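FORM 7B: Structural annotation worksheet

SECTION A. Query
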Amino acid sequence: MSQPGESATLSTMKEEEFEKEVSRLAGLPRDRARLLIHATLETLADRLTAGEARDLAAQLPAPMKDWLIPSTQEAEDFGLEEFVRRVSDRARVRPEEARQAVHAVFVTLQKAVTSGEFDDVMSQLPHQYRELARAR
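SECTION B. Predicted structure
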């Protein structure tokens, strides 16, 4: 949900900007960053309720919206280590690289969507996710 005064359809960060920011934060080439953004958003869709995944997707540029399509209405319950493992498996990268990319995606999400929406996403996740989302 958006906070009062925030646009529910806010999508000011373009796909290219999002990829460049994740690439910079994770220290990865853009094509690799794109692969890891895709894997992270798909995994996030598994972890969020379907409604929250759709709310977040509404504020992201295409085609990232499509990467947040949930497979079920209910959120799966798994911790940060399992999240990183799933991203690692989906992207076929080492867990260390996946963790760095997840951090970069979460920091970039925080910049790309309204603060209310980011808080809504974080409210569905254990505390460790918020720690990972903090800028370093």
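SECTION C. Observations
The mean pLDDT is 89. Helices lie at 15-26, 30-47, 50-57, 64-67, 80-91, 95-112, 115-123, 127-133.

SECTION D. Sign-off
Analyst initials: ____
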